[in-house]
């Protein structure tokens, strides 16, 4: 499964947790996410860890609608460059169809689909792995964001839209009405926002065809990185993923919405391999942390995604000729010569 989301999916998490008297860094740390993940909202987080931290926030705050509240506050800001594309589409329907096409750039673990639902249209949020815990918090966050998106696109034409949720209510219905203006329909067969078919034809006042085309080209280029750019992009992706556990070529390929074979072929065309990029990224990260931090070697081994300390020590000795425990002393001696 493509188990990733952009860190922007947690935008505002620090502010909301502070209102409940909670430490957001403690919550992130407790689910295994880097404490500075919010410093780079275009980075990546594990979707499983994303759900875990939402669930933990709901539990420790005592607010069962924690995810929904966060989603409503985030609104469209989480979409980054995709938002500019949507705002410059011709109609609401065009914007939602482009969200469907490019949503995987924001979140690989879920899909957004626009389709018919009886006499209505539905904007569906579908998680690729429905077995993960915490899906209710993630689904309500998504509907909060979706509601704000429709409000942004439709402007004066917007009214609260019917919503479907696959889970049972997590709070009294009045609490949902207070936040959303409507009570969702629970225990449904899907998670979605419902629209009238004619609403898809509403024109967007901000539409700029030229700007729309430029942004579309930019997003297409994000999906078709040049061979020269690809190793650097993979290295940046590895820096985000390694602290969350061991990283495989399959996981990276899924994050980039391409097959393993395609990623390996394109890296070969650029004159390198996945293993080479992985080793070089780990080397640079190891040097930087040993130079600029007070991390223990065991912590560094975990941060670089190694299964155990001995595997890291062997790799480090192969790279630099000395074990990590001696690297600082050897470097200090060399600087005095």
From TrEMBL:
Molecular function GO labels: DNA-binding transcription factor activity; transcription cis-regulatory region binding
Recorded superkingdom: Bacteria
PROSITE patterns: HTH_ARAC_FAMILY_2 (PS01124)
Residues of the HTH araC/xylS-type domain: 232-330
Transcription regulation keyword on record: yes
Annotated keywords: DNA-binding, Transcription, Transcription regulation
Protein name as catalogued: AraC-type DNA-binding protein
InterPro entries: AraC-type_N (IPR032687), Homeodomain-like_sf (IPR009057), HTH_AraC (IPR018060)
GO CC entries: cytosol
Pfam families referenced in this protein's UniProt entry, alphabetically: Arabinose_bd, HTH_18
């Amino acid at each position: 499964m493509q188990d990733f989301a952009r860190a922007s999916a947690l935008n505002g998490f620090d502010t909301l947790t502070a209102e409940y008297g909670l430490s957001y860094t403690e919550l992130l740390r407790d689910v295994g996410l880097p404490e500075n993940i919010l410093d780079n909202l275009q980075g990546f987080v594990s979707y499983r860890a994303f759900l875990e931290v939402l669930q933990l926030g709901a539990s420790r705050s005592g607010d069962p609608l924690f995810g929904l509240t966060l989603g409503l506050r985030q609104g469209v800001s989480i979409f980054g460059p995709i938002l500019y594309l949507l705002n410059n589409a011709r109609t609401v329907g065009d914007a939602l169809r482009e969200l469907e096409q490019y949503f995987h750039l924001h979140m690989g673990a879920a899909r957004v689909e626009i389709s018919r639902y009886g006499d209505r249209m539905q904007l569906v949020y579908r998680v690729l792995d429905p077995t993960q815990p915490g899906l209710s918090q993630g689904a309500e966050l998504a509907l909060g964001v979706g509601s704000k998106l429709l409000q942004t696109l439709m402007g004066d034409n917007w009214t609260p839209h019917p919503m479907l949720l696959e889970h049972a209510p997590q709070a009294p219905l009045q609490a949902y009405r207070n936040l959303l203006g409507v009570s969702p329909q629970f225990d449904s067969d899907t998670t979605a926002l419902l629209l009238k078919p004619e609403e898809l034809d509403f024109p967007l006042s901000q539409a700029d065809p030229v700007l729309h085309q430029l942004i579309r080209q930019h997003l297409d280029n994000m999906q078709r990185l040049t061979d020269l750019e690809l190793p650097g992009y993979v290295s940046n992706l590895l820096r985000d993923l390694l602290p969350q556990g061991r990283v495989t070529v399959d996981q990276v390929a899924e994050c980039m919405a391409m097959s393993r074979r395609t990623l390996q072929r394109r890296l070969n065309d650029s004159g390198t391999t996945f293993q080479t990029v992985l080793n070089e990224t780990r080397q640079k990260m190891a040097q930087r942390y040993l130079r600029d931090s007070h991390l223990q070697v065991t912590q560094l081994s975990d941060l670089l995604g190694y299964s155990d300390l001995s595997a890291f020590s062997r790799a480090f000795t192969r790279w630099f000729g000395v074990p990590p425990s001696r690297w600082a002393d050897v470097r200090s001696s060399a600087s005095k010569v």
